[in-house]
């Protein structure tokens, strides 16, 4: 009998299993994959996420893996250009990192095992075990082996957007919207551009950042209705998008860039929040909450949710509070913590800016101090309430002599 079974051991499940095992609980963590192995990802870890890796004692391993530090970011949205970096975070993080998932996930899975969690890779969950409406365990097997049954006080699904656990418990979506775009990405040699996140006219975007093995990830986005056309010649499509948004980088891609791996095409699942707790079960990471990858917050949010859930489950397992109470608090607090990022992501991932966001970002690009705030917002170390505060925006527009008609200080209003 386990205290907790965690289904899925990537960026949400492995840290959760590790944290609970470090508390002395008997934890079983299972995953259909074996490690190291790849999975679709932006790779990007914000300073807030890196701070958690440091607190867990794992950041040094990510750095030692050869993941290059990034200390300058280049953002553009049509003709709005914002360059710079956030201040050093309170815990001393002065860079961001974009490790390959073959690297990051192996570090996390090993950390869970080293903490005392029992880890079974290559394990397929066939079904959950119920006692009435209470989840009490699961059944599954490794490869073609015999089916096994494991029981626990709590089963947690960390198994992604197509979560087996979520389906088995009938976890309903209570907030959501359709995904807007498709993504193609791969790894390139000879692309020494630093970190680029560039959205151009014509509803298209490219991003690039350095990762392990001296390679750079290069990704492009367009609206979903252009997916069929794009997939006929993705190399030409990538070249076209980069060249249209930044002709200089387009020329460099053509002259020196070499794609060294296959493309990863993705039609991302819709944005959603699912009911993430019930009798004997909970969901974490993409199993319970997913948003467009445009802002690159998937890994960092998974880390934050894993830490939050681990802290609250400890209260439930220790008897300090009823488990149903702490799980309900987990869902509420997760939604509160991620609300501003979720709303911002949905607002700008359509590859067009509303007048409000156009005015805020355009004014930001004119002011060095507010630019620092923008990158602090991106890093997760600057308050959204302050960056988007009506008085702060009014002061910014006055400071940069912004046209009165464009001074949007609220999503549904302007300065009169």
UniProtKB/TrEMBL annotation:
InterPro entries associated with the record: FAD-bd, FAD/NAD-bd_sf, Geranylgeranyl_reductase
Domain FAD-binding: 2-338
Stored Gene3D superfamilies: FAD/NAD(P)-binding domain
Signal peptide: none
A GO molecular function held by the record: oxidoreductase activity
Domain of life: Bacteria
Pfam families: FAD_binding_3
Protein name: NAD(P)/FAD-dependent oxidoreductase
């Amino acid at each position: 009998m386990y205290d907790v079974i965690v289904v899925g051991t990537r960026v949400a499940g492995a840290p959760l299993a590790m944290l609970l095992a470090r508390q002395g609980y008997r934890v079983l963590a299972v995953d259909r994959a074996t490690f190291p192995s790849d999975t679709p990802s932006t790779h990007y870890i914000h300073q807030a996420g890196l701070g958690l890796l440091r607190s867990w004692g794992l950041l040094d391993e990510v750095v030692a893996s050869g993941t290059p530090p990034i200390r300058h970011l280049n953002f553009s949205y049509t003709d709005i250009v914002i360059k710079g970096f956030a201040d050093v975070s309170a815990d001393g993080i002065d860079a961001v990192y974009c490790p390959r998932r073959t690297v990051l996930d192996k570090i996390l899975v090993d950390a869970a095992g080293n903490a005392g969690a029992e880890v079974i890779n290559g394990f397929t969950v066939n079904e959950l075990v119920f006692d009435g409406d209470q989840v009490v365990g699961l059944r599954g097997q490794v490869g073609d082996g015999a089916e096994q049954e494991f029981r626990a006080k709590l089963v947690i699904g960390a198994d992604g957007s197509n979560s087996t656990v979520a389906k088995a418990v009938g976890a309903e979506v209570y907030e959501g919207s359709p995904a807007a775009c498709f993504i193609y990405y791969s790894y390139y040699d000879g692309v020494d551009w630093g970190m680029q996140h560039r959205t151009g006219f014509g509803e298209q975007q490219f991003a690039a950042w350095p990762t392990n093995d001296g390679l750079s990830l290069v990704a492009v986005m367009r609206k979903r209705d252009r997916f069929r056309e794009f997939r006929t010649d993705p190399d030409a499509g990538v070249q076209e998008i980069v060249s249209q948004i930044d002709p200089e980088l387009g020329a460099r891609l053509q002259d020196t860039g070499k794609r060294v791996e296959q493309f990863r095409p993705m039609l991302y699942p819709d944005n959603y929040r699912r009911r993430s707790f019930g009798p004997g079960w909970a969901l974490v990471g993409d199993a319970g909450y997913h948003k467009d990858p445009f802002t690159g917050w998937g890994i960092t949010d998974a880390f934050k949710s894993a830490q939050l859930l681990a802290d609250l489950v400890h209260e439930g397992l220790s008897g300090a509070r009823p488990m149903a109470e702490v799980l309900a608090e987990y869902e509420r607090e997760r939604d509160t913590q991620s609300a501003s990022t979720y709303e911002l992501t949905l607002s700008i991932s359509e590859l067009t800016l509303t007048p409000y966001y156009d005015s805020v970002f355009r004014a930001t690009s004119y002011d060095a101090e507010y630019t620092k705030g923008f990158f602090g917002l991106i890093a997760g170390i600057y308050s959204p309430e302050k960056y988007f505060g009506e008085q702060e925006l009014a002061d910014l527009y006055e400071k940069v002599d912004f046209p009165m008609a464009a001074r949007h200080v609220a999503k549904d209003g302007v300065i009169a």
